[in-house]
Amino acid sequence: MKDLQSAWKLDIAAVGSQISDRSVSPVALAEMMLSRIGRIDPQLLSYVTVLKDDALKSAEIAEKEIAGGKYRGPLHGVPIAIKDLYNTKGVKTTACSRVRENYIPDEDCTVVRKFREAGAVILGKVTTHEFAFGFDSLPTKNAWKLDHIPSGSSGGSGAAIAAGLCYAATGSDTGGSIRAPAAANGIAGIKPTYGRVSKAGVAVLSWSLDHAGPMARTVRDLAILLNVMAGQDPLDPHTKDVAVPDYTAALSGDIRGVRLGVPTNYFSEDVQPEVADAVAKTIAHLESMGGKVVPVKISDLDGVLDCMLAIAMSEAAVYHQSSLRATPHLFSDETRLLLEAGEMVPATTYINAQRARVAVKAAFREALRDVDVLVTPTQPSTALKAGQSVSRIGSREESVFAVSARFCVPFNISGLPAASIPCGLSTDRLPIGLQIVGKPFDEAAVLRVADAYERNTRWHLEYPPISSRY
Fold first, then answer.
1. Which residues are tagged catalytic?
2. With a threshold of 0.70, does the pTM exceed it?
């Protein structure tokens, strides 16, 4: 068996290959990850629940199956983590809220069931902002700088992957909650098209904006994970009967002739200089690889954050209404106030927001008419400091929500597939994210461009200090 001392740096594609040829033991791999969690996570605080016994049992089963010739595929025996919004049979699913501190589901959610069927080893549940209603994800820390936030709401997933405490994790994304922590932690994440991945058994924030998706170290890993997660589910009426391709087959490394739409408005406004510079260099790099840069202007985006808030707050208030009436004291003050405010949103405001959403969708259809993907910054700045309430970029001041969501929300409103991959580090060594957006149900094009860039750079091979400190 191979020495596992540096195995945490491998991606799923590499470690899965070693598991399949039996040069790496799933049990030894799970033990290595559990040991790292024990040493590192007391400082990072990314896990809510560690499933040591369950993980080792699953790893033993995987090892016996593989030895017996029953290999399930590239996730078989691979240790992953699950965001604590996702129901896990017999295991607490708290959504990081006292409202659900004793909630133990009777069944796995659809995504977790699919991962178990693929032979993945579930290490535990990772943190989320309470009911995914925010971007701080406290008390979890950013793996690169412990006094900064990991963003959110999938902050536990982002921090754990960056620190090498799992090979992948699930995320959910209502206003950027996969892409923002992917950018903040220097990893990869994709929000698939709305309706591509089942949300059955995942706690709701906003049913018309929520997306479930994967987070991992590399783009190829995202493709492997999405191959398992995607598909219509009778338990989720929002999923669509659209054929699911083999996403790994799209990863050719060749983007010659791919039309890269670069927005000339909105996504270039009020951006931290180092972020703007890194993204500009990335676009030039993609062009040097054969991509064709096409400037595009996107209309009807000025009120997109207000549109998202009207929809999300109203739908969240409906979902949590009975709990808010029965046990308001169990919500954090922040979440309770947001839910109470959501109850006060007039029906006319909600309906007008849904009408504005139609215009946003039409604007992106037009913007994507003559290009294959759009390329933007994931966020206008690097990760904010913990406790920071206002972000300043030049003369612009905005809330943590606004700076975290500004470039991500348009693709929740439109439902388009959008990925974030690392494209640089700031002078103070905080990751910078690039966002790649595709046409409906064309995650393959997004992954193709992201993978080609990744193959030609080394940003995904940068690791935060905490990953090797303990």
1. 83, 153, 177
2. yes
